[in-house]
Write a structure and sequence with these properties.
Blueprint (H helix, E strand, L loop, with lengths): L2 H10 L5 E3 L5 E3 L28 H7 L8 H6 L10 H13 L3 H9 L3 H4 L19 H4 L15 H7 L22 E3 L10 E3 L6 H5 L4 E8 L5 E3 L14 E5 L1 H6 L8 E2 L11 E2 L2 H5 L2 E4 L8 E5 L8 H10 L8 H17 L1 E8 L2 E8 L14 E9 L5 E5 L2 E2 L4 E2 L6 E8 L1 H7 L4 E2 L8 E5 L9 H6 L15 E7 L6 E9 L3 H10 L5 H11 L6 E9 L16 H11 L20 H11 L6
Parallel strand pairs: 3-4
Antiparallel strand pairs: 1-2, 5-6, 5-7, 8-9, 10-11, 12-13, 13-21, 14-15, 14-18, 14-22, 16-17, 18-19, 18-20, 22-23
Helix pairs in contact: 4-5, 4-17, 12-13, 12-17, 16-17, 18-19
Length: 614
């Protein structure tokens, strides 16, 4: 091992960080990282006056309370963005991350509770949060964000001075919460005719998917990709040598998945599936997650046919259940808004994919087609999974076979019998040697340096080389360039008259929640989360799609019913196709394509010769 690498590796063994929790218990992190390790370009702690970015209540005075179904304030309050600072799942995750890597919580808070970088309340364990911080990703915060890449003629001229004045320079990439905030708190939007009562700059950043990439592209800044494609830990107490998230170990690649899809490169006409009022061509993140409606954005503003809802609906239904219970006695939380946000998350999930069934003799193929603008599922790598559940019924409607069964009583999924679309990370032998943790699949996300599995379904426009370069490769599966669907073939049991397939989504599976509880040895977030999860249905899966198919008989080449499958059967079918009699009454559409023709003859010749059923 080269001397420099040996020096850096030995430094990773130091575990001097001490975390003090209530009750006097003291625990040391595996790696003693400092805040310097997580320093990134963009707005820094204490760089803005605390009053520069106002709490959401200063915005909802004008932008809420007039259309509970659609207005910006009402829909934001019921979103995961609006509740990010009150999310027990996040805090349980952050606790475990802090146990592994000292001070990583300050990095986590940049995305989940970004107001801490205005209030200077970014303690790694979240202990300094106040009511304003708990607003999560609030209105003024987003609407004061500056495009870090200055675009002449597009960016407001004022942004040049803001970017030039940053202590560590402007970010070169979108991701890792490398946000830049207007130090004067000037609110920004895309309308040319807006006449607000506050200072306003026209800026198109709020309508660009690049803005979303700020937090939906996450790499581990402590783990960089090497020339051979593997990942290695960086030196301690030194900022990352490469701020490009694509060159860091992937924790989330939703932005790149979209950026490299057909949606971002010309758009896709989804014929109203997404986009709300007038939805057609979908090209930006906002087109799906901020659908249009005919209404007002301000209580005394004009009616517009393309006003955007701020519900940011994604796949957070199960998390919203947990947050709702956790905040049930919090007067600052609108429970009706959360219920509405949850319902829209379910609606979004049901738009995200289609199922089709195709029978071929004694086998059935289930195709899952990804209709979203990123991988299915996407987002934070932990816990999220989608799977196929297939059930067979006899002529009396009795269940006679099942694949991918989910047991509601035990909250356990039969993963061995079906396809589960998910991403798992792990520890290499190198990482295992430095951490003392077992090599292979791991729940220690902040230490992971290998992708053990990523068979998630790509979006339209997928290219293997491009996704690989962005740190979003397919692992443990194979998708051709352009393929945005996946097929799984199941056997058809004898006596099956119909099949019903379901596609389910889950973000809080039992194994994940129990792991967060089991690994937590510094506070009670794991236990609290587990209790909330138990009381809210234990992460009951959300049905994304369902389809039923009436099954035909498995192909039987003995069409003349003489007990043999041979040349006589071929001759028999040739005669029927030519218009002759069919005394056995067998369906001459042997290949079941809806036509009786030479293709049926070709199919039976193949089967008699030992080939597969059509």
């Amino acid at each position: 091992m080269p001397a420099e690498l040996a020096r850096r590796s030995l430094r990773w063994w130091v575990a001097a960080s001490v975390v003090v929790i209530s009750g006097g218990v003291v625990a040391a992190a595996i790696f003693d990282m400092t805040k310097r390790d997580f320093r990134l370009p963009g707005t820094q702690l204490q760089e803005l006056p605390a009053a520069a970015i106002q709490p959401s209540t200063s915005c909802t005075i004008c932008h809420s309370e007039f259309d509970a179904e659609n207005d910006p304030g009402a829909t934001w309050k019921g979103s995961l963005m609006g509740q990010a600072g009150r999310d027990p799942l996040f805090f349980a995750q952050m606790t475990n991350a802090n146990q592994d890597v000292a001070n990583v919580g300050t990095f986590c808070l940049r995305c989940h509770v970004p107001m801490t970088y205005v209030s200077n309340h970014a303690a790694p364990d979240g202990s300094q949060l106040d009511a304003v911080d708990r607003d999560g990703v609030n209105c003024h915060f987003c609407h004061s964000m500056v495009d870090p890449i200055y675009r002449p003629g597009i960016s407001p001229p004022e942004d040049q001075a803001i970017l030039a004045g940053l202590e560590y320079g402007p970010p070169e990439y979108y991701g890792n919460a490398m946000f830049v905030l207007d130090p004067l708190g000037r609110r920004r939007g895309s309308r040319t005719d807006a006449q607000p009562m506050h200072e306003f700059l026209r800026a198109g950043f709020t309508t660009s998917g690049n803005m979303c990439g700020t937090c939906h592209e996450v790499g581990n800044v402590a783990i960089d990709r090497q020339p051979d494609g593997t990942y290695r830990y960086n030196a301690l107490d030194e900022p990352t040598p490469d701020t490009n998230p694509a060159n860091q170990f992937p924790l989330e690649r939703t932005f790149s998945e979209w950026r490299l899809s057909a949606f971002a490169n010309g758009g896709v006409d989804m014929q109203g599936r997404f986009g709300g009022l007038g939805g057609g061509v979908v090209s930006s993140c906002q087109d799906c997650h901020m659908p249009r409606y005919d209404g007002q954005a301000c209580a005394w503003g004009p009616n517009r046919p393309d006003t955007r809802r701020h519900d940011f609906a994604g796949a957070s239904a199960q998390v919203m259940d947990i947050i709702s219970l956790y905040t049930q006695n919090d007067p600052a939380v609108d429970q009706a808004a959360i219920a509405q946000g949850r319902a829209r998350s379910v609606e979004m999930l049901r738009r995200a994919a289609d199922l089709t069934l195709t029978q071929s003799g004694d086998s059935l193929t289930v195709r899952v087609t990804n209709q979203s603008g990123h991988k299915l599922p996407t987002g934070h790598i932990e816990g999220r999974r989608v799977w196929v559940n297939l059930r067979y019924f006899d002529a009396q409607g009795s269940l006679i076979g099942e694949f991918g069964h989910y047991d509601d009583a035990t909250a356990e999924l039969d993963t061995a019998s079906t396809t589960v679309y998910e991403m798992h990370v792990g520890l290499s032998a190198y990482a295992s040697g430095l951490t003392g943790l077992p090599a292979g699949r791991t729940g220690h996300m902040s230490l992971a340096d290998t992708i053990e599995k990523d068979n998630r379904i790509p979006p339209r426009g997928f290219l293997n080389t491009a996704f690989e370069a962005a740190g979003a490769p397919v692992v443990g599966a194979a998708y051709a360039d352009g393929q945005h669907w996946h097929d799984t073939t199941f056997p058809v049991p004898p006596g099956a008259a119909s099949a019903r397939a379901f596609l389910y989504y889950q973000s809080t599976p039992k194994e994940y929640i129990e792991e967060l509880r089991h690994n937590n040895h510094t506070d009670n977030w794991g236990e609290l989360l587990h209790g909330l999860w138990t009381q809210t249905g234990r992460g009951a899966p959300v049905e994304m799609a369902a389809v039923t198919l009436q099954l035909g008989p498995a192909c039987d080449p003995d069409v003349n019913q003489d007990g043999n499958a041979d040349q006589d059967d071929i001759a028999y079918l040739v005669g029927v196709v030519a218009g002759g009699e069919n005394p056995t009454g067998r369906d001459p559409d042997f290949n079941r394509d809806g036509n009786v023709d030479q293709d049926d003859v070709a199919a039976i010749i193949n089967v008699v010769a030992g080939g597969d059923c059509p």
